[in-house]
Amino acid sequence: MFDIQEEVRKLPSCPGVYIMKEGDTILYVGKAINLKNRVRQYFQSTRGKSPKIRKMISRIEYFEYIVTDSELEALVLENQLIKQNHPPYNTMLQDDKQYPYIKVTVGEMYPRIFVTRRVQRDDARYFGPYTNVSSMRETLDMLKNIWALRHCNRDLPRDIGKERPCLNYHIGQCMGPCTGKVDPETYRASVDQALELLNGHYQIVTDGIREKMLAASDALDFEQAAIYRDQIENLKKLGQKQRIDHAGSEDDRDVIALALGEETALVQTFFIRGGKLIGREHFFMDGADVDMPSEIVAAFIQQFYSGTPFVPKELLVSVEPDDRETLEDWLSVQKDSRVHILVPQRGEKAHLMQLALQNAQITLTQFAEKMRQDELRTFGALQQLADCLGLDEDSFPERIEAYDISNTFGFQSVGSMIVYENGRPKNSDYRKFRIQTVQGANDYASMEEVLTRRFRHAFDEMRKMSADQTDISLGKFTRLPDLILMDGGRGQVQICEDVLRRFNLEIPVAGMVKDDRHRTRGLIYQDIEYSLDTYHEALMLITRIQDEAHRFAITYHKRLRSQNQVASILDQIEHIGPKRRKDLLQTFGSIDTIRGLSEEELMQASSIDRRAASSIYRFFHDPSQNQTISEEDL
Question: 41, 201, 251, 293 - which has most CB atoms within 10 Å?
């Protein structure tokens, strides 16, 4: 028996990480400069503690701890444990994007320039992060067009002259140092100019190119002068797009502003590089305690900058984070130079913060409206559907399965099963069925086969998992629906109810009914037809489900039909068996391509001799040889 109060008394008074647990579930991971004092606070009076913390404390059964040499080490360990376990009571950064950077390998004799999402401790130069990828690509294209720097992976100068230059060399987007015709000094001069551009020094680069333009003009090389003129114009345009805002200095800094809703926390970040605002992004903090803003900002800094490869010199924050000095030390280790966290009070920095706060609040307001609309389309629609059908609380349709049959005059009949959970499609649970026991166009019998196979799979999986003591939730079919929707009227509903009775299952079944113009108009449930208003959210959800079931079935049917048509057409040709059919399709790809080839071209397939090639050619071009092929077949 774990005695919490007794174990708290045993805690050491040193830095470390504590782990609050309920059974095998990790509820919360925290760090402390003094483990005894920090953990003891949780189990003293709950006065002043937020509802979230009180709820967590009520669930704690025991705790574990790990002693570290310093608070900085505790912070690093805490971050690792949070990322590995995703504790429900830790504030979690929802976003996991890795932003791209432009990398210039200045340490190489012939530096390369390319996009990367990993910043390493090497002798390269990195520029970014770029939240606007199109802007980054535009900059990269400009560098290629003006200076033609390489971005291949060849090891130069070792590989000079070993292979032919690539396409970029031939189209003028690479100087071709791999040819050995470019000396390192000339190449390095172009790299230096590209670095000036990436640093935002557009005027310096423009002045240099203008000098070249004038020199070319004086030498009567008007074609080259025109190229320089176009480069200057492009630089002007790019410079105007990049000058979004100026932060009053040439430093790198991030501006971090926190906006709080009733139950939501949003962080708006401005990325400033070389004094220019190059991008902005917002992040939602999952599980955030809105009563503890300093903790939210600390959690954001800790999680975001452990995943980003670049740490700026300065972080401007709207709220001072918990353990600011420890975070500064940790960020400084990440950057390998001193990093400062500041709460700006006046001047240009305060102006930037105010701008970030305004953007954060606007985004949060927009998000709240979007969440309201999304909830109406999903949970709200499900509630309307449950109310319409008179389903009680225990039968709330959290998981809906819908079925459809597709065939062409009975040929290649297939069935589809789609799944919606909480009002959204769950594609991973979709299933396809190729009808095995029914000949011809018999939708009722085909549907009976599909449903029988679906629920038989469920019971087979349950028995097997029970015998093997495996988690039942791991099965593909074991999760049963709360509601079944059939694409059809009373007949299809009756078929489904008969199958459910055979398996002793009680699951509500409704039929999705369409009007004369093939639009969903309502449901049939327990022999009663329920009409729904056109703008009823439940009707819109049902329509989406019905359309999705039909789309999934017909897509599968078309694929099977296409495969069989190709096989059946080639099988009609004399001297063409399975081996040659496979060889033809692998060599030429499609019937349409094969149809347009000459006999000599057909013989390029390894198994096709003169006789077989002649037979194929006659089949497609001599009407007397074939009366069954049609344009639709092709």
Answer: 293
Backbone phi and psi for residue 460, each to the nearest 5 degrees, phi listed first: -65, -40
Domains of the chain plus CATH, in order, are 4-90 (3.40.1440.10), 101-242 (no CATH), 253-366 (3.30.420), 393-560 (3.30.420.340), 572-625 (1.10.150.20)
Query: For the stretch 51-69, what's the b/e string if a residue is b when 16 or more beta carbons lie within 10 angstroms of its beta carbon?
Result: ebbeebbeebeebebbebe
Give residue 474's identity as a one-letter amino acid code: L
Helices in 249-310 by DSSP H: which ranges?
A: 293-307
Give me the helices (H) in 380-485, please.
Answer: 381-389, 443-468
pLDDT, greater one: 585 or 505: 505
Q: Where are the beta strands (DSSP E) in 397-545?
A: 399-408, 411-421, 424-425, 431-434, 483-486, 509-514, 520-525, 528-531
Report the C-alpha gap between 185 and 191 in whole angstroms: 10
Cross-strand pairs, 246: 276
Beta bridge partners of 29: 19
Which one, of 498, 503, 454, lies nearest residue 479 by Cα? 454
The pTM (predicted TM-score) of the whole model is 0.50
CA distances from 118 to 97, 121, 125, 532 (A): 12, 10, 12, 53
| Contacts for 290 with CB less than 8 Å, ≥ 6 apart | 260, 261, 262, 263, 264, 265, 296
Out of 62-71, 405-414, 467-476, 528-537, least confident range: 467-476
Residue spans of beta strands (DSSP E) within 75-140: 92-93, 101-104, 113-116, 125-127
From first CA to last CA, the distance across the chain in angstroms is 75
| Other beta carbons within 10 Å of 335 | 15
Distance CA 38, CA 11 (A): 10
Amino acid identity of residue 379, one-letter, is F
| CA dihedral sign of residues 564, 569, 574, 577 | negative
DSSP SS3 for 520: strand
| Tokens (6 digits) for 23 | 């059974």
Q: CA 75, CA 326: separation in Å to the nearest integer?
A: 8
* Tokens found for residue 4: 């919490």
38-42, 222-226, 589-593: segment of lowest average pLDDT: 589-593
